[in-house]
Amino acid sequence: MSTLEEKFEAATAAREIPGTILLATSSDGKFQYQKAFGPATPTKPLDLKATMILASCTKLMTTIAALQCVERGQIGLDDEVSGVLHELKDPKILTGFTEGENGEPIYEAAKTAITVRHLLTHTSGLGHDAMHPIYPKWRKAMGHPPYAGDVQQSLLHNITIPLMYEPGTSWSYGVSLDWVGELAARLNNTTLENFMEKNIWTPLGIKNLTFHQDLKPDVKKNLVKMTSRNGPEGAKYGMPQREAGKVEWSDEIIYEDPTKYEAGGGGAVGSPVEYLKIMHSILANDGKLLKWETIGEMFKPQLSAGPLKAWMDYIGVPFLQGAFSIPPAGTKMQWGIGGMLWDQDAETGKKKGTLCWSGLPNLIWTIDREAGLACMYAGNVIPFGDFKSGNFQVLFEKEIYARYEKFLKEGK
Q1: How far is the C-alpha of 248 from the C-alpha of 230, rounded, in Å?
Q2: Of the segments 154-158, 309-313, 327-331, which one has the largest average pLDDT value?
Q3: How far apart are CA 273 and CA 50, in angstroms?
Q4: How many CA atoms lie within 13 Å of 129's alpha carbon, on the beta-carbon side?
Q5: Residue from 390, 338, 369, 394 nearest 56 by CA
Q6: Of the candidates 140, 170, 187, which is a domain's last residue?
Q7: If you average pLDDT over residues 304-318, what whole number do you get?
Q8: Are 265 and 177 in contact (CB under 8 A)?
Q9: Angle at 368 between CA 4 and CA 388, to 5 degrees
């Protein structure tokens, strides 16, 4: 029977999956796994110095930044954010459009102010142009330029949008964490890059995470080339194809470089190996980033009935079953602060109480405090939801849990 390593070597060589980095650590650091497979570029093998487009894996760092502000007493989890984020004062809900080809937007005033917790749990009412067609239609009706997340456009242009529902009553993946990044920066009269450098990266000895590749030469030098399953172009916001062919090298731009802004919801690029240091700090409750009671709040279910139903509907779409990081149909799920929260053990290997989230080019981090194990699967391929990558991520995680359990039994 082939080993885990042999399977990944064969799969990356055959271009079933792109070059991939697999990482794991126990809370005490005695159990470690770090391995790179396959190519980083058409001419360069992947190694553990590689950097990748992290996309929505950025959200964990932005969440930590906001929680640090809460711990300092700068704002409370259930405080309104409009005193700092004045753009979110007196929010309006977009309920539809008047009749006709050039219909005008119809709004109603929200009755509930947006809080920090709403933003951190995606219950603010804000969505995203790439997922909710109402926004491109709204921008056209308003005469606004379209959303442009990969070009030199203002971050505030992209994220200053009306709500889709009353805050706290539903769930929608969108620009909420971009606003959280703005919140942390404004509260401290700095940039999000500088805040994370001082309060997250430097305390952990992290050198190669950033929003700006031009600030850190090793990030740019070691950046893997993007790959695509659906063809070399136009795949970033496409849908994964279950019967798609081999991965191909792609020149599609995920992030503009240099970039003018720092998107807390998905703008970071850097080293998966160093990102693991952040995960380990949370797993170990080492006090370097957050207090133990704050970390405890991250792992508590946050969604009431209405938002929970919307969240379960979001991940329960039949044609995405088996896609990368999507829970098996019927799995009980919740949402914590920082990521999705598994509410039961699952056949894919995830354990109840595990907090995790993913990034657009098919990366995923998981933190299981009960077992004392954190894992990261990092392989840059678009579009998100890659089925083949999903299969290999499950293979990796199951094997790592088995090795960790053996490690514990042997008393090493």
Answers
A1: 8
A2: 309-313
A3: 8
A4: 17
A5: 338
A6: 187
A7: 94
A8: yes
A9: 40
Q: What is the pTM of this model?
A: 0.97
Beta carbons of 19 and 40 less than 8 angstroms apart: yes
**How far apart are the C-alpha atoms of 312 and 291, rounded to whole Å?**
30
Q: Does residue 1 carry a pLDDT above 80? A: no
**How many domains does the structure of the chain reveal?**
2
152-187: string of b/e by CB count within 10 Å (b at 16+)? ebebeebbebbbbbbbbbbbbbbbbbbbbbbbbbeb
Contact 385, 324 (CB under 8 A): yes
Residue ranges of the alpha helices (H) in 17-164? 58-71, 116-120, 134-142, 155-159
Amino acid at site 210:
T
CA separation for the pair 81, 240 (Å, rounded): 36
156 in the same domain as 142: yes
Tell me the per-residue pLDDT of 281-292, one tens digit each, with 9 for 90 and over: 999 999 999 999
For 406, phi and psi rounded to 5 degrees? -65, -40
Cross-strand bridge partners of residue 23: 34, 376
Print the domain residue range for 392: 4-69+191-409
Domain-terminating residue out of 131, 154, 187: 187
User: pLDDT tens, 63-85?
Assistant: 999 999 999 999 999 999 999 99
pLDDT attached to residue 233: 52
What CATH number is attached to the domain comprising 265?
3.40.710.10
Mean pLDDT, rounded, of the chain: 94
What number of residues does the chain have?
A: 412
If you write DSSP's letter for every residue of 151-203 in order, what string do you get? SS--HHHHH---BSS-TTSS---SSHHHHHHHHHHHHTTS-HHHHHIIIIIGG
